[in-house]
Amino acid sequence: MSSILRILRATKELTPFYVGIMLCAILTSASALIAPFVIKGATDTVVAYHNGDQSRGLSVIVWFAVAYLASQLLNTIFNNVGGYLGDVMSQRMRTSLSVRYFDKLLSLPLSYFDEELTGTIISRLNRTITEIARFIQMFSNTMSSMLITTVAVLAISGWYYWPLAVLLIIIFPVYLWLTSRTSVKWQVWETEKNQDIDAASGRFNEVIGQIRVVKSFGQERRELGLFSKLFHRTIGTTQKQSRYWHLMDIYRLAFLNIMFFVLYLIIFVRTIQGFFSIGDMVLLIQLMTMAVAPVTSLSWIVDATQRAIAGSQDYFKVMEHPADPRSLAITAEGEHSQEPEPVKAAPGEEIIRFHNVTFGYEGEEDVLHDIDLSIKRGEKIAFVSESGGGKSTLMALLEGLYDPRTGSVTVDGMDIVGGDLEKLRSQIGMVFQDASLFSGTIAENIAYARPGATEDEIEQAAIKANADKFIRGFKDGYQSVIGERGLKLSGGQKQRIAVARAILKDAPILILDEATSALDTKAERAVQKGLDELMVGRTSLIIAHRLSTISAVDRIVTLRNGKIEEIGSPTELAQSGGIYSELLSLQNSSTKQDKKRL
Ligand code: ADP
């Protein structure tokens, strides 16, 4: 329950809504309580009339009817105003919780996403927030009106005849006890079911995202099988849940009916005995009917409460996950200025320093050992290793995505741990193997690095990236929409847009992470032209798969099993017998074989 209170505290701005909804609930209940008294008055008048008291005749009855109508109209109005406020409040709450959740996700360290599937994260977000918002809406509207009705019914019936109130009071805790006993077991199944749904959604998202791979491996049936197995398991769980719930419902309702049987019996007997008038009897019967709804609602209230508790606990589990303390997502308003700060280091002076760096991913062994490396401003430096040697990890450390276990990384004199990440990110431009474009226009994609860029700046960047010509070849030019439902670009075209994006960013340090390794020779040449332009005057760190693309760098650093093996110029290392010369001769021999085959 404390987690729900935390939600309420976290959404303090909605307090006027809570108050408004509760006020409407009070007025709805109060107006509903008028009707039984009106009918009691009318009944007593009719009975008196038949018994010879003609002083209060037809005109009084008409007034009773008018009062009844007025109470019902008021009831409808208050009820609907409350409903309207509830809907608006609920949507505001969803929005507020979703935005916070998204903000939190953006601020979490990369290691969180290494462990969680995207679809699972999305499914959990939808489920938890829907359940929390539904509960709060129900609580503030239905539940508070029921609470008021119950208290009023207890007070009025107690005032007429106290044993009625005592019996009613007994019903509530017993019914609640019967319900909550059921729901403990029920909740365990619910958690099981949610885990299956979240896992199925995670897989669903992955499969749709990589539908091409699934199809080319002909794995549609297997994926469907996995997905349907997880979902089918939820049918079994729901069957167990529902069977148990409804069986217990029979017990609960049997108890309830016996109690109401006794209550009605008391009312009828006491009326025959003359203790109650006919009007009193009619009033009390109506009050008893009004009390049934809150009691039977206890079961779904308990159900909704528990779902909301589970939902809010899941919500806070994510919200309490320690954020990356230097994340740029922390609820800052507006966009970050991505203008790179001027570099302090003069050309030829040290700009990047890895100082005895050791690093391992969370809960795993070290993958980088004792990396000591100094890079000068303007230098072009390539990293070579076998796959899994630690090149990408080294770049991730430079970007401040992970902190080293020991040692330090400094960029332009600033230690990345505890440093200004915004400044760091503004100083690094990147081109990855996978161009990672978003759906939107080509211009928007190029401007992703600098949202305020002018059309002319975007075009200049594209010209340098050797992309302008093919972009203009599209019917809508720079405004062509790419992405899921838009234009399909080739690997080389996407990569040239990514290069244009990096050129526009104009950062002094550049990371090229296997930027051309997924391309064929022709596309590679086109992209390389852009990359050469991009690298002019920038400190460039290049991870290359094809060694031919790095023959012009100043130095090569080779890594073996996470350790630096050699550092030297391409000509030096080609002769040294280290990993670079090994890979070089391997690539040369395969190229020769390829040529022979042709
Ligand atoms: P390279 O870029 O040279 O291929 P990586 O830096 O990608 O090498 O990988 C170095 C090592 O770190 C490998 O053993 C790899 O399995 C491991 N590794 C890479 N990324 C992660 C990750 N997100 N979580 C755990 N281990 C990882």
Automatic annotation (TrEMBL):
Domain (ABC transporter): residue spans on this chain = 352-586
Superkingdom in the source lineage: Bacteria
Annotated membrane topology is: Multi-pass membrane protein
Q: Where are the transmembrane segments?
A: 16-39, 59-85, 132-154, 160-178, 250-269, 281-302
One Pfam family this chain carries?
A: ABC_membrane
Q: Please verify whether the record's keywords include Nucleotide-binding.
A: yes
Matching InterPro entries: AAA+_ATPase (IPR003593), ABC1_TM_dom (IPR011527), ABC1_TM_sf (IPR036640), ABC_transporter-like_ATP-bd (IPR003439), ABC_transporter-like_CS (IPR017871), P-loop_NTPase (IPR027417), Type_1_exporter (IPR039421)
Q: Which UniProt keywords apply?
A: ATP-binding, Membrane, Nucleotide-binding, Transmembrane, Transmembrane helix, Transport
Query: Does the entry feature the keyword Transport, yes or no?
Result: yes
Domain ABC transmembrane type-1 as annotated: residue spans? 19-307
Q: What molecular functions are annotated in GO for this chain?
A: ABC-type transporter activity; ATP binding; ATP hydrolysis activity; ATPase-coupled lipid transmembrane transporter activity
Question: GO cellular-component terms in the record?
Answer: plasma membrane
Tell where it localizes: Cell membrane
Family to which the UniProt record says this protein belongs = Belongs to the ABC transporter superfamily. Lipid exporter (TC 3.A.1.106) family.
Q: What is this protein called?
A: Fatty acid ABC transporter ATP-binding/permease protein
